[in-house]
Amino acid sequence: MKILSDKNNLQILHEDNHLIVVNKRVGDIVQGDKTGDKPLSEVVKEYIKDKYNKPGEVFLGVVHRLDRPTTGIVVFARTSKALTRMNELFSNRETQKTYWAIVKKMPEKAEDKLVHFIKRNEKNNTSKAHLKEVPESKLASLDYKIIKELNNYFALEINLHTGRHHQIRAQLSAIGSPIKGDLKYGFDRSNPDGGIHLHARKLVFIHPVSKENVTIVAPVPNDVIWNAI
Fold this sequence. Notes:
Layout (H helix, E strand, L loop, with lengths): L11 E4 L3 E6 L15 H12 L9 E2 L8 E7 L2 H12 L4 E8 L7 E11 L4 E5 L7 E12 L4 E7 L6 H8 L23 E9 L6 E5 L6 H4 L2
């Protein structure tokens, strides 16, 4: 398993008085859950407390989440004002999110728009992508394109239009191209570190306070396949 983030090995991508953006590792959970494992939010709080010698409790707001086996950009808010405004940006789809994924089976088209209806199964924490609307499903869409052909794999760049539960994983699985290592969605074997080859690569948004355009790019994890892109 990979070494999870601690306050000494955090990869900070952006930091100012209102926001802190981290490159999440495989296995990190963004927010506390039933596992009881220490979440990334607590690690970032410790980092801020130490760096700025802050007495008492540190405020940190979770703006959005990434699945535990996924890597890449995670945004936290350091002020309540920034949290409120960032939540609005994300809920109103006023951000541009770009992901990279590695798949073994080449999609039928080199680039395409995928539109499905995603239905979540709370019992086993999965989502299924349907071509037609079914009860309790939500519309999900994304664009993808092949950006590199590797020896046995294909690298895809994905732009999300909606933010549904396990959306990219479920939609790529639905077209027969599950993400490398993603046993839950049909890949044939797991990755040694327990992660999947899905990376939140780029995020573009308007800063909630300064109103400047912010572009964040997260380096990929250090492994043979990612390094080949």
